[in-house]
Amino acid sequence: MIIKYIKIIIKKILKKFNISIFTNIPKRRLLKFIELLKPHDLGYDLIRIGDGNEAGYLVPNILDKIKYCFSPGVGQSSQFESDLEKRGIKSYLADFSVDKVENLKISSFLKKNINSYNSKNTICINDWIEQNSSEYEENFLLEMDVDGSEFEILSSITEKNLKRFGILVIEFHYFELIAHEAFFKIYFPLIEKIRDSFEVSHLHPNNACPLIEASGVEFPSGLEVTFLNKKFVKEKKKIKSLPHKLDKKCIIGKDDIFLPSYWYN
């Protein structure tokens, strides 16, 4: 009776101050989630595309097979897409927060946010892909840093359109929330959906925030993940260490952070 009474009092206090609580995910389930994200040597050297720090990403060296790049969330930099243009790859960029994109010659910009639906300022990810490619074109590259909207966008993309990509480069945000049941139910099936057709070739934590412990497991708040379509995979071998020799800090003036070995061993 005493425990029941205490629970009632706690719930009333939380309600009064508009505080919500979630069921915590146990460590074993969090480690199972990390298993989905462990990178492997997939038979290709990694190359760096984009200048310097936050605008650069590592991708498997199969760009000779890539048809187009789709880049939601342009922000203030198009260095990644500029590098692709030097290799003859056209990019389709979209971002409602900017008016235009400088220093690109063959690429195309749309002043809309990519989302799961169409509106005045947004376009559905599937419509955007299908409007800029023929039905049978494939081997695209998706480069996406959209500050948390990646969960909605990737959840809404059809499996057919997802499989048309050869490489995905995605920065995931708010991974520190993974220990809460409500967020785990979003994150886990989303990564499972991607992993059905892709393998992980690289991880790089954004050093904007330090690692955060959740149920005894350390997570980065922001994590750059490079996926390779399974049809391109030559082999699958464990990697020995992270970071990769080509990795660079996202934020120059801040200390770098390093993933614990259970993220890759």
Structure in a nutshell:
This protein is of the alpha/beta class. The protein has helices spanning 2-16, 27-37, 79-86, 125-131, 150-156, 159-162, 181-195, and strands at 40-41, 46-49, 57-60, 68-72, 90-94, 108-110, 113-115, 122-124, 140-144, 165-173, 198-205, 212-214, 217-219, 222-229, 237-238. The chain has a single domain (23-263), classed as 3-Layer(aba) Sandwich (Rossmann fold).
Describe the protein in words.
This protein is of the alpha/beta class. It has one domain: 3-Layer(aba) Sandwich (Rossmann fold), CATH 3.40.50. The chain has helices spanning 2-16, 27-37, 79-86, 125-131, 150-156, 159-162, 181-195; strands spanning 40-41, 46-49, 57-60, 68-72, 90-94, 108-110, 113-115, 122-124, 140-144, 165-173, 198-205, 212-214, 217-219, 222-229, 237-238. The longest helix has 15 residues, at 2-16.
